[in-house]
């Protein structure tokens, strides 16, 4: 008997959601059966997250009905959904940094023994879950300071311990490399074999063919197409998502200058996260950095941009040693970083788009030491239009979609006319349409003679946008590949040495 022969464990009928005069979900029907993976796809703003929040009890529908194992289902809170047997892994990390890994895995449901918290049992179970996902780290370690990728694996391990009958995975691999993703897929296969239903949301469309049994595509709050198999060409999925034909995913890459803009000479971290790194980036070159989680990619670019300390080595810009000791040093010299976590490190979510752009450009907006609202608004509005941000200047950054938030981060730094732009996971959690716009921006920077460094866990992405690719493995520089020599196999061979 296949999953399609079984009655749904979860059924949604005519689910609608209205905010004021705006209807964001238009009568959604959805079934999920035991032991199957339903991929829920669509651009940012398509309604996927709202629908997931309704299923998981975080948002109440305006109308429509749900059933869970044939009985009426209407969770008033996420806790009610969890108690019913539904778990959700959120795209935005929700860990508590001052608690240990084990405490985070079992937060709100601590294991007890004889009336006391059983820390040993929690640590053993948390460690076992993390090891299954390829993360060998002490469960007693605080979450604070862990990389985004490691935090994502902890979120996944947390959901795996729920013994849920249905899991919603929202961009679970967005911060993961290929090896970590395959470990997760093996866990998903085990869950399927145990009869767990899974709703899988991802912008990495190639992985959908590996993991999904069915595909549901949403656009503008409506379900527009459903495929009875996961083996659907990416182009077909993309065209269903965007409602138009898509000629190509990646734009043409311009040829760089022969002049070197940035050099990294013998750079090492005081924490041992990277060692003896040497490379150069030319004017107008897009230089990719690839590697598995824990390879030291993010730590390296944070050091280059002054966000993390440097033990030995130099950063040389346009022939001059600048070796930044702080982000301010790097910014003053024309080196800027678009960080991997735009919500935590790139934006002040509770402040407006205009304010966020202004924070990085006070010297340009207030050249005399005084700044007026009119001048700030004019300055920010120009960059909002230039980068196609879909939002008003006075709107809070936290209200924007992931793609538009990333455009704001790009706008605030590119307004400074930098010499070097470092992009760490530039399209993490961003839909296909917004990705295309960001890729176009990267190529425009290169055409202007700016040196661009792109760090990405998405191998297709780093291959698609880079003139050359440096591969890192366990904190070391494993090799640098020219575009003509770089492919999935050559990169992974270096990444796993």
TrEMBL record:
The keyword Ligase does not apply. Its main location: membrane. The keyword Nucleotide-binding applies. It comes from Peteryoungia ipomoeae. One of its GO terms (molecular function) is ATP binding. Keywords: ATP-binding, Cell membrane, Membrane, Nucleotide-binding, Repeat, Sugar transport, Translocase, Transport. It comes from the Bacteria. It is a peripheral membrane protein. SMART domains: AAA. Residues 10-245, 255-497 form the ABC transporter domain. This is Sugar ABC transporter ATP-binding protein. PROSITE patterns: ABC_TRANSPORTER_1 (PS00211), ABC_TRANSPORTER_2 (PS50893). One of its GO terms (cellular component) is plasma membrane. Belongs to the ABC transporter superfamily. SUPFAM superfamilies: P-loop containing nucleoside triphosphate hydrolases. It is found in: Cell membrane. InterPro entries: AAA+_ATPase, ABC_carbohydrate_import_ATPase, ABC_transporter-like_ATP-bd, ABC_transporter-like_CS, P-loop_NTPase.
């Amino acid at each position: 008997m296949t999953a399609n022969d079984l009655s749904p464990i979860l059924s949604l009928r005519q689910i609608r959601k209205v905010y004021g005069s705006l209807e964001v979900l238009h009568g959604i029907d959805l079934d999920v059966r035991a032991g199957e993976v339903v991929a829920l796809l669509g651009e940012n703003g398509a309604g996927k997250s709202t629908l997931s929040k309704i299923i998981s009890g975080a948002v109440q529908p305006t109308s429509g009905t749900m059933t869970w194992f044939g009985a009426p289902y209407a969770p008033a809170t996420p806790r009610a959904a969890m108690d019913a047997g539904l778990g959700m892994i959120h795209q935005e990390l929700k860990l508590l940094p001052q608690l240990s890994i084990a405490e985070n895995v079992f937060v709100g449901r601590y294991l007890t023994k004889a009336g006391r918290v059983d820390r040993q049992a929690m640590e053993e179970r948390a460690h076992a879950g993390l090891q299954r996902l390829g993360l060998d780290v002490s469960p007693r370690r605080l979450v604070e300071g862990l990389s985004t990728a490691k935090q994502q694996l902890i979120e996944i391990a947390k959901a795996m311990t729920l013994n849920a009958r249905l899991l919603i995975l929202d961009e679970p691999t967005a911060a993961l490399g290929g090896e970590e993703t395959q470990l997760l897929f093996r866990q998903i296969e085990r869950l399927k074999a145990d009869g767990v239903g899974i709703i899988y949301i991802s912008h990495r469309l190639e992985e959908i063919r590996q993991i999904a049994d069915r595909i549901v595509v949403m656009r503008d709050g409506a379900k527009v197409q459903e495929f009875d198999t996961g083996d659907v060409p990416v182009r077909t999925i993309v065209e269903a998502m965007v409602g138009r034909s898509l000629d190509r995913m990646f734009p043409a890459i311009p040829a760089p200058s022969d002049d070197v803009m940035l050099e990294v000479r013998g750079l090492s971290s005081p924490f041992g996260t990277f060692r003896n790194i040497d490379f150069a980036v030319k004017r107008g070159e897009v230089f990719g950095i690839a590697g598995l989680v824990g390879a030291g990619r993010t730590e390296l670019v944070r050091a280059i941009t002054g966000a993390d300390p440097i033990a030995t080595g130099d950063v040389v810009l346009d022939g001059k040693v600048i070796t930044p000791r702080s982000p301010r040093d790097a910014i003053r010299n024309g080196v800027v970083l678009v960080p991997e976590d735009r919500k935590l490190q790139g934006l002040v979510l509770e402040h407006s788009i205009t304010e966020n752009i202004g924070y990085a450009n006070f010297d340009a907006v207030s050249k005399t030491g005084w700044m007026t609202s009119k001048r700030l608004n004019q300055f920010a509005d120009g960059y909002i239009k230039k980068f196609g941000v879909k939002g008003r200047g006075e709107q809070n950054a936290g209200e924007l979609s992931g793609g538009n938030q990333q455009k704001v981060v790009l706008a605030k730094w590119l307004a400074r006319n930098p010499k070097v732009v470092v992009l760490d996971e530039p399209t993490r959690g961003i839909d296909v349409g917004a990705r295309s716009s960001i890729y176009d921006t990267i190529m425009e920077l290169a055409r202007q003679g700016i040196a661009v460094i792109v760090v990405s866990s998405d191998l297709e992405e780093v291959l698609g946008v880079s003139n050359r690719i440096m591969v890192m493995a366990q904190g070391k520089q494993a090799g640098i590949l020219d575009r003509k020599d770089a492919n999935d196999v050559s990169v992974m061979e270096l990444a796993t040495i």
